[in-house]
């Protein structure tokens, strides 16, 4: 992938973390990267193509991050809570959570990628030792906690919402 395409994906991801699919335009991405909007179209013909590519790239990164986290922290509850807390502490939100709430309004290709993101998490949670019901509860709790932390601009909201999951809090 070219440096320009990577920069476009980075800019789109930053905006999607705040405003989801509706939170960016090609003109804004072009301005962020310092290129013409036609260059964005060259790499990603449609907004749907760009958003789907962002989600695919983010999902691949998240899967790798979780594999690395599980190698150090084999408790899946702690591993996932830590992983999602990291986005909140960084002052952002997982772009798939942002878009997941509006998945019924997303273009089909983007909604499919968002769904695959969450399916990957469910599968990996089961592989890590949780039963399917517990995996669903964990995802619901950490995604809801992420939304609350975002609403109140306070990582402490995430910690309070996930407190019952963990016998000891995750260090800041």
Can you give the helix content as a percent range?
over 70%
> How is the main sheet built?
none
CATH superfamily of one domain: Tetracycline Repressor, domain 2
How many helices? The count is 9
Would you tell me the overall average pLDDT? 93
Q: Supply the helix-strand structural class.
A: mainly alpha
The Rg value, from CA coordinates, equals: 17 Å
**The level-1 CATH class of one domain:** Mainly Alpha
Find the CATH topology of one domain.
Tetracycline Repressor, domain 2
Give the beta-strand count.
Answer: 0
What fraction strand? Answer: under 5%
Tell me the CATH architecture of one domain: Orthogonal Bundle
N- and C-termini, Cα separation: 35 Å
Structure description:
Helices cover 74% and strands 0% of the residues. It is mainly α and 172 residues long.
Helices, strands, pairings?
Blueprint: H1 3-19, H2 26-33, H3 37-43, H4 47-72, H5 76-89, H6 95-100, H7 108-127, H8 132-152, H9 155-162
Helix pairs in contact: 1-2, 1-4, 2-3, 4-5, 4-7, 5-8, 5-9, 7-8, 8-9
Concise synopsis of the structure shown:
The protein has helices spanning 3-19, 26-33, 37-43, 47-72, 76-89, 95-100, 108-127, 132-152, 155-162.
Provide key terms for this protein.
9 helices; mainly alpha; single chain
């Amino acid at each position: 992938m070219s440096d320009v395409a990577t920069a476009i994906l980075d800019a789109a991801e930053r905006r999607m973390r705040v405003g989801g699919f509706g939170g960016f335009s090609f003109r804004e991405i072009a301005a962020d990267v310092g290129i013409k909007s036609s260059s964005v179209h060259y790499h990603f013909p449609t907004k749907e193509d760009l958003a789907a590519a962002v989600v695919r790239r983010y999902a691949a990164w998240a899967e790798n991050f979780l594999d690395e986290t599980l190698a150090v922290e084999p408790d899946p509850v702690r591993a996932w809570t830590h992983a999602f807390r990291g986005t909140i502490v960084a002052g952002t939100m997982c772009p798939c959570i942002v878009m997941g709430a509006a998945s019924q309004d997303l273009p089909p290709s983007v909604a499919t990628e968002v769904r695959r993101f969450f399916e990957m998490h469910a599968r990996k949670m089961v592989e890590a030792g949780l039963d399917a019901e517990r995996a669903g509860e964990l995802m619901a709790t950490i995604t809801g906690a992420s939304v609350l932390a975002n609403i109140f601009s306070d990582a402490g909201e995430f910690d309070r919402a996930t407190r019952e999951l963990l016998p000891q809090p995750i260090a800041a």
